[in-house]
């Protein structure tokens, strides 16, 4: 789904904004929607509200290698919506896998989420995010998190609540997508949130 803007330009280079689709997946309640909310504002979802379908957030990212536009697809983690996910994953350029360090089952389920995304969108860069590291009652310890090593994913321990390492997963993905390992995000992100739930029939 990589695009170069404006349409009149046929070659992607540092003077053209490149657009990527990034899907955010994982069990419900792991902090995916709160992560997207934090990126676009100071808001934080203190009460868990299940995402129905998918919500999209468009973010402009200024980097040392030019400007990029990321369209974040915040996908539902509810099992009953499983049949819809293939449509959401189609044409993804990258993915963020989320789990909650206070819930062992959310980490245990990561292989299933990973299998789903690579089946639909193989060979895309993926980053694994361990959320809620600010919580004292941690169940998944750092030394036991090894899944990312096996599949050469990026990995970050983050806290959406405390705003810890929120930009780093996106920076990692942009490094992989642009094939510029020295790329760095400059300043804060410019984001706009679209609260609409995408109808699978429109994809």
What does this structure look like?
It is a single chain. The chain is an alpha/beta fold and 203 residues long. It has a single domain (3-194), classed as Rossmann fold (3-Layer(aba) Sandwich), CATH 3.40.50. 23% of the residues lie in helices and 29% in strands. The chain has helices at 32-40, 85-89, 104-108, 110-120, 147-151, 168-178; strands at 3-5, 17-26, 54-63, 66-75, 94-100, 126-131, 154-157, 190-197. Strands 1, 2, 3, 4, 5, 6, 7 and 8 form an eight-stranded mixed sheet that branches. Helix 5 (147-151) links the parallel strand 6 (126-131) and strand 7 (154-157). The radius of gyration is 16 Å and the shape is globular. The model is unreliable at 6-14, 44-48 and 193-203 (pLDDT under 50). One of its GO terms (molecular function) is GTP binding.
Segments where pLDDT lies below 50 for 5+ residues?
A: 6-14, 44-48, 193-203
Give the CA-based shape.
globular
Report the structural category: alpha/beta
CATH superfamily: P-loop containing nucleotide triphosphate hydrolases
Note the total helix count.
6
